[in-house]
Recover the amino acids of this structure.
């Protein structure tokens, strides 16, 4: 991996549920302090680091990746001290049983585990029942009085997981979207743009693209590019290659569409041309469902040309997601090349 693996590890192991991205915000501000001409944070918590353009500063490009990860909020504390949860983002409940979590209480983090009954004590009906997030509970290993003293309704909960290299992949929690946030930070350190670039780390993407939608109004850029992960179903359960969407190790994915946006064809073609000229591995992405911050910029403050670069990801929205190191490097290279070559003179009108 060409880029800073230690930074990627720090980002992915940090905790930041939607609306509670404080720890990620600190890393973003630190990493961009020597790069940006100005760094500011808005009322929602979006971070915007502005790099002034050298020759055409009036033309503005927004580049966004979101800071938040899927998590939970405590909605009830039982008399016995178990925590009931409300989902923040789209979880697959099947993967949650017996997983370690961190409860972010006012006086400090607490370790916990999502309970799971032993299978040999379950009835046939219980074994066949469908898992739901509302059925999950967190066991803190403490009695009810102590838990109620330390945990409040509204405290957030995130998964507890480390980041590891497995061959050519990087695995861990919150690769969605910290791997793309990492790519944005790395690209920002490499560019000397002609136009003004707003590097945006957004909030609350996992609960409806909320940060990017607000930011689209506040920034009103001439061009926007969002980075997010995308599906890589190149695994044994999907023998039909048409359902893979992308393949790990085949390069950065240039989005044509997802469930929230159809990208601007002219911007997309420029990305493809840059990748081919520079020899950067890339692949097309047609994602049937799901949305990204790209949509938050497309028409929030009038029509805008938008594009999206994606990092292929296996096991998305689970406890352990996996990205290929070459795809991450390709994403950094492609984004940096795109920003450095933007003059503000391309006509993206259709």
């Amino acid at each position: 991996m060409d880029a800073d693996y230690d930074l990627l590890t720090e980002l992915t192991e940090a905790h930041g549920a939607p609306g509670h991205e404080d720890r990620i915000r600190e890393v973003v501000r630190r990493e961009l302090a020597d790069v940006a001409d100005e760094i500011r944070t808005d009322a929602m918590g979006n971070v915007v680091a502005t790099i002034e353009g050298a020759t055409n500063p009036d033309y503005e490009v927004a580049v966004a990746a979101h800071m938040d990860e899927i998590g939970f909020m405590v909605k009830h504390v039982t008399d016995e001290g178990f925590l009931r949860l409300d989902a923040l983002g789209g979880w697959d409940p099947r993967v949650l049983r017996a997983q370690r979590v961190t409860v972010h209480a006012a006086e400090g983090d607490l370790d916990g585990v999502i309970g799971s009954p032993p299978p040999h004590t379950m009835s046939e009906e219980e074994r066949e029942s469908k898992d739901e997030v509302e059925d999950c509970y967190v066991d803190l290993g403490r009695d009810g009085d102590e838990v109620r003293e330390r945990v409040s309704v509204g405290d957030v909960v995130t998964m507890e997981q480390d980041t590891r290299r497995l061959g050519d992949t990087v695995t861990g929690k919150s690769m969605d979207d910290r791997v793309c946030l990492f790519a944005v930070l790395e690209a920002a350190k490499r560019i000397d743009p002609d136009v003004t670039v707003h590097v945006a780390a957004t909030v609350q993407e996992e609960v409806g693209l909320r940060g990017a939608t607000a930011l689209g109004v506040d920034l009103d850029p001439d061009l926007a590019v969002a980075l997010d992960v995308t599906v890589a179903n190149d695994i044994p359960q999907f023998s039909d290659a048409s359902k893979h969407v992308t393949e790990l190790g085949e390069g950065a994915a240039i989005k044509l569409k997802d469930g929230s946006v159809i990208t601007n064809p002219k911007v997309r073609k420029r990305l493809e041309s840059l990748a081919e000229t520079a020899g950067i591995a890339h692949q097309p992405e047609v994602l049937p469902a799901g949305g990204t911050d790209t949509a938050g910029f497309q028409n929030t403050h009038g029509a805008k040309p938008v594009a999206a670069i994606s990092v292929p990801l296996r096991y998305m929205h689970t406890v352990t997601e996996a990205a290929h190191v070459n795809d991450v490097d390709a994403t950094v290279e492609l984004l940096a090349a795109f920003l450095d070559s933007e003059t503000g003179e391309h006509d993206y009108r259709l």
Observations:
- The mean pLDDT is 94.
- The CA atoms of residues 112 and 140 lie 5 Å apart.
- The first helix runs from residue 5 to 13.
